[in-house]
Known about the structure:
By secondary structure, the chain is an all-alpha fold. It has helices at 4-25, 32-55, 64-86. The chain has three helices and no strands. It is flat, with a radius of gyration of 15 Å.
Amino acid sequence: MSAVRPALVWAGLVVVTLLSWWAGAHHPAGGDGARAVFALVLAVAFGKAWVVGREFMELRHAPVALRRAFDAWVLVFGVALGLLVLL
């Protein structure tokens, strides 16, 4: 891994964190709009978890089975929590 890549990934994660914070802080007071924004922020959080796992926990170089298990975990729990929020 080059020295620049982790810094760029980290900067991207910071930007996405700030955008999701802004979206969460400026959502409508209630109703379906708030739920949709919360689901979006939750999806961003699981996306960030996937990036952290791949980039900083070195899952990019892990055996294929471990990478697929991690991908499945992020997908299954992200979708499950998203559905709980939206229902």
